[in-house]
Amino acid sequence: MKSLFKVSFDWGFYLLLIIVIKITWSDLSLYRWIALAISLHQFLLLFNSLGAVMPIRYLLGSFMCLQMLLGPTFAYSGLDEYQTNPIYQMKVPEDVYFGYIIPAVALFILGLHITAGKLKGEVLNLNQITEFVDQSGKLPYTFIIVGFLSSYVQAFFSSELGFVFYLLSGFKFIGAFMLILGTKKLKLWVLIVVFGSIIISTLRQAMFHDLLTWSLMLGAVICLKYKPGLAIKTAASFGFIMFVVVIQLVKGDYRKAAWQGDESGTGAASFQAIVEKRSEDNSLFSTKQLAENNLRINQGFIITHILSWVPKSEPFADGQELFQILEAAFLPRIVAPDKLRAGDKTIFTKYSGMHLQQNTSMGLGSPGDAYINFGVAGGCIFMFVLGLIFSEVLNGFYRFSKVYPFLLMFTPLVYYYPIRPDCELQTTLGHLVKSCMLIYFMIIFWRQDLSKISKKRLPVTTSPV
To answer: Cα torsion for 346, 348, 353, 356, to the nearest 10°?
Structure first.
């Protein structure tokens, strides 16, 4: 709990800010004010942690707040009126929605921190990691090569084996992070190649999540290395937020151009042209445009569909759907050939009542899965347990890092999907399980190289949070 409340955090500024919000936002309900207060707390903790830790728990909490509290707050505050498609509107009153989701999110965050101590599994021993990187020779470049080769070959395999190569493709980012944290002169061209590749693939596929997530992780590593001051962190954070907002506002138009099959519709030039066009007709930051794109951060509308559908039209699953999720997450398809597939619309339609188009994919989200299995009270308890599971995996990394300090550098790869509350729960847990198994086999395969770090006790980097 120290990582939630007993931290180097400006509580005076935080309390003043939420009071000012309440006073100036005259029609803000108590539910929405509490949602904003929880979200702001997590966002400020995340900001405060940059430069001290690899902030996995704060990212998990912040993303949950962003999509389940902040986006719905804007929707209930009037932006929902601009949604032209009724399917994307909130389907239950705000007291019904927030009456479930506020305690569910709060207990999820509590589960993340109740056994975290001083953020175990997130405080990197930079002295030992730096020594390991310096002694590892060409290992960072090996990781980068493995990552690029895996990105190329994953398309040639079935979904099960292809997912393994998808995980391995993330090694190129881990290799880049190792080079940043080492003492040798950083070769800038390596970072350009690694992160330039994800920019190119993002623009080609018009899918931006990979770029934004790995950019966040890169920023966290750079902060660990260079310890920027408050002014630089603030400016960089503001720039990143504006970058994300612009992407969300033009993403729809860009995807239409990119998915028409004409390669001229993709690329930086096409993206810039769409931004300029929106700026010229003053529609880039219009209320209507902001309202339509609030949907990108408002996954709460799916929860409202579930709340209005279950148990009125579909009874509670009473754990049966959760059993299918656990089967999909833990068992290989050769053992469970009929297990759930990623993007399976059957479960989604059954418990939300929403019928999706063929090319549209949505997930119930972890709060949705929790509710359909256990109801309001049981769903909140499940969210606490889920947060506790995520935290205990980090605690496991902390214990093994005493032997292999570099292991904590792989936590971004392990939590790359779990930080997304909009993902299907079987995908989230499956990613968590498979990535941990992959790292375990990596240690077995490279045990001799990965144990080069000296056995002597070096000073442990401590976190101010």
So the answer is: -80
pLDDT in tens, 35-75: 999 999 999 999 999 999 999 999 999 999 999 999 999 99
**Does 16 score more than 50 pLDDT?**
yes
Chain-centroid distance of CA 438 in Å reads 20
Q: How confident is the model at residue 206 (pLDDT cuts 50, 70, 90)?
A: low
Indicate the pLDDT class of residue 1, thresholds 50, 70 and 90. low
Q: Which of 447, 218, 428, 268 is nearest to 340 (CA)?
A: 428
Structure tokens at 424: 């299907």
Cβ proximity of 297 and 73 under 8 Å: no
**Inter-helix orientation angle 365-401/300-309, to 10°:** 120
Q: Which residues make Cβ contacts (< 8 Å) with residue 44, sequence separation at least 6?
A: 9, 10, 14
Does residue 102 register a pLDDT over 80? yes
For residues 12 and 8, give the distance between their C-alpha atoms in angstroms, rounded to a whole number.
Answer: 12
Q: How far is CA 284 from the centre of its chain?
A: 26
Spatial distance between the Cα atoms of 398 and 375, rounded to a whole number of angstroms: 34
Picking from 394, 364, 351, the residue whose alpha carbon sits closest to that of residue 299 is 364
pLDDT tens figures, 265-313: 566 677 677 666 666 666 556 666 777 778 778 999 999 999 999 999 9
